[in-house]
Amino acid sequence: MDKVIPQFLFEQELPSASLYVVASPIGNLGDITLRALHVLNQVDGIACEDTRHSAQLLKHYDIRKPLMAIHEHNEMEAANILIDHLRNGERWAYLSDAGTPGISDPGARLVMQVGGQGFRTIPIPGASALTGALSVCGSILLASSGQFQFLGFLPNHNKEFDQTLERMIQSALPSVFYESPHRLSKTFLKLSKAVPEERGIFVARELSKKFESICHLKPSELLPWLEHPNNQKGEFVIVLSGSNKKGAEPEHADSTKLAGLLKDHMGSRDIAAILSSLFGLKKNEAYEIAISSKEKG
Ligand code: SAM
Question: CATH for 130-240?
């Protein structure tokens, strides 16, 4: 492997006692960076969301390292074991199943625990379905001067789903979200009923895979598009264009502003409760806004 790795990769030191958070491919195994391969070759061990899944990627690149599973059921315990390795001065990497860890994937809690113990967490950037889709959605991003809001997976629960959809419809920002094949019909049905016809919907399907396809649709075209059986399969990123109605404001800007006004007067939990009831935000979303307003000081 070292034969094809350019010398410049060795010029940057890889600090010991650190966790390297490594982006991996979202489909095509070729979408891993040279630096990611270099780091994976240098670390003492690799923690994975799913060791069987990551083993295939590592086998492909002939990387043999001790693997450790860190998933939501053993996260605290496994993170402590990993931290013990860091205490011994080792370097470890973390791989989620696909794309960038922490983006609708595990990783954030591990990073928080490792950072909380005073160890470095180092990002090794690379593929993500989010950036892949945005890089080819063109007109929608152009209309918003490149701004967007990312919602991850929309809520499962009907009421929360409808509230989130309503916020996306009202928002001046384009809304980007992830969707899985088994929920796609339901989501498209709701979008086709609720989204005004003048809005655009961009669908990025199976990025970097054999049956990759992207298309711009109007709400009335969603259900006919779905009738093609192939279009119901695979993984999806969906972008809803922003509203250009006068007065449409990005709710996050409003909620962030309110959090800023409240931050010196109450705790994060109380701020989050107010944001969530006023703006219909999910609890964790509201809490994050509250926390970051406190951190900004
Ligand atoms: N961490 C990943 C990232 O950086 O993109 C996302 C992981 S999330 C659990 C998986 C979701 O990402 C899928 O349900 C789909 O919505 C989206 N996704 C992942 N791979 C994709 C691909 N090749 N094409 C389109 N969407 C994809």
Answer: 3.30.950.10
